[in-house]
Amino acid sequence: MQGLAAGYGKKRVLHGLDMDLNQGEILLVLGHNGAGKTTLLQTMFGLLRPMAGSIAFEGREIGGRTPAANVRDGIAFVPQGHGIFRSLTVRTNLELGAFAERDAARMPERLEAVFELFPILKERAQQIGGTMSGGQQQMLAIGMALMHGPRVLILDEPSIGLAPNLVERVMQSIRTVNERFGTTILMVEQNVKLSLPIASRAVVVKTGAVVYEGDPAPLTDHVRLMQLF
């Protein structure tokens, strides 16, 4: 992202934001409520059109492209609130996650990979998604995103609404996705304590601009982090 400006209506939330996402990393985006984190993710994924600036993916401009085009190009997005079909079974949710996969023969392999990563989903394959716990629904949402083999996985607050023990489990799952599949991950997260240890690099956004980019380790200092916020 270079000089990226975006917002809602005439109101700008991002103001000339510059940020890089490197292949194979877990990039953690931190910031106070209203800093522009969700706006950044929605603009990257095509849910919002940039007002200015550029978004390049593998050397090609994708700013303003549709979410469907981004999915076909290997970019997946898991929004806040789990993003599943609550009235459908776990298995059907996962199968729908592969809607953009043109090679149907790959679906069993992808499904098995998701079941290996999240055994609880295999155990509850015929359960209605909306009846599972919050942590299980988050795993299902991530599993759906993995069903079309994304190269980039964008996560918006994956721990929101989860009990502390479930947050740790979800964070470990995110690390496993990165390590096992080589998936590049961009994650917005408020749980600093549990998300910093899995991050390769961290960015702090304040009022729509990047104020810190680099090693996550200094941000474990609460005083330093609050100064950036």
Number of helices: 9
Number of DSSP strand runs: 11
**What about the largest sheet?**
6 strands, mixed
Global mean pLDDT? 92
State the fourth-level CATH superfamily: P-loop containing nucleotide triphosphate hydrolases
CATH class: Alpha Beta
Helix-strand pattern: EEEHEEEHEHHHHEHEHEEH
CATH topology: Rossmann fold
Structural class, by secondary structure, is alpha/beta
Strand % is 15-25%
How would you write the strand order of the largest sheet? 7-8-9-3-10-11
Q: What is the helix fraction of residues, given as a range?
A: 25-40%
Protein name: ABC transporter ATP-binding protein
Organism: Marinibaculum pumilum
Pfam family, one: ABC_tran
Keywords: Amino-acid transport, ATP-binding, Nucleotide-binding, Transport
Give a quick set of tags describing it:
ABC_transporter-like_CS, alpha/beta, 9 helices, single chain, 229 residues, globular, three-stranded antiparallel beta sheet
Structural notes for this entry:
By secondary structure, the protein is α/β, with parallel strands linked by helices. Helix content is 35%, strand content 23%. A 6-stranded mixed β-sheet has the order 7-8-9-3-10-11, sandwiched between helices. It has a 3-stranded antiparallel β-sheet with strand order 2-1-4, with helices on one face. It has a two-stranded antiparallel ribbon with strand order 5-6. A hairpin with a 2-residue loop joins β1 and β2 (11-17). α6 runs parallel beside α7 (164-181). It is globular, with a radius of gyration of 17 Å. One of its GO terms (molecular function) is ATP binding.
